[in-house]
Amino acid sequence: MPSSAPADLLEGLVPLIRAAGELVMAVYRTDFDVRGKDDASPVTAADERAEALILPALEALLPGVPVIAEEAVAAGRVPAVAARFWLVDPLDGTKEFISRNGEFTVNIALVEHGVPVLGAVLAPAIDRLFLGAAGHGAFVEEGGRRRPIRCRAAPAEGLTVVASRSHGDTAALDAFLAGRKVAALRNAGSSLKLCLIASGEADLYPRLGRTMEWDIAAGHAVLAAAGGTVRTLAGEPLRYGKPGLDNPHFVASGLG
User: Fold this and answer.
1) Among candidates 86, 93, 79, 163, which has minimal Cα distance to 122?
2) What DSSP line would sit under 131-171, residue for residue?
3) What is the pLDDT of residues 27-57, one digit of tens each?
4) CATH class for the region spanning 159-253
5) What is the pLDDT of residue 1?
6) pTM above 0.85, yes or no
7) Which value, to the nearest 10 degrees, does the dihedral of the CA atoms of residues 241, 247, 250, 252 take?
8) For a disulfide at 69, which of 88, 153, 222, 226, Cβ 3.0-4.6 Å?
């Protein structure tokens, strides 16, 4: 029976998510086709091939634990939400993938009782792998090395705020940030925004638009393991396994 200890599960995810990243990059290097799903969002062969690799591997890693994955849900295959389940986005930031800016990720998270307790976020085009597990800490692998990461204290010169490159309401963001000392506003794609806060490269990510649970669960797990939080605008911790699997507006923060 495979070990279910957080540290062991995290290590088990590393070769899996890297193999999925290789499939994504193989498509990225081709003249790939882009199709529209029923909700008009784009999908490519990279999304489908990566998910087809990930799903059976997660079943082998934790037999019997259900997997909720973006492309399976789009095809109508939605397992019942359990006390413990996986959330998978095989290619987060498909618009970034299509525009070839490198800011797309493969996301895998384990949720227990509504809380993302373990996550891996791989940005294969820029060779950055973020890992985190509750009680185990958060890490980044790049350039062949792994190092621990933590959120930083608020810099005296002001906050670095990250915003979506492909989805955003500038007026709503400006209103939210009014009165805060902001040193820089940085655009980034996909779940990298949460990971930049986890690694101390940014401080705040207000998301004032729609997201799905699989978009952010892995990044949320990394951020929480690095000392950060993700809360609704009402200040409540963001939870998972919600009806419809969509998120309310939220704020990710490394400031406690």
Assistant:
1) 93
2) EEETTTEEEEEETTEEEEE---PPPTT-EEEEEESSS--HH
3) 888 888 777 665 657 677 888 899 999 999 9
4) alpha beta
5) 45
6) yes
7) 60
8) 88
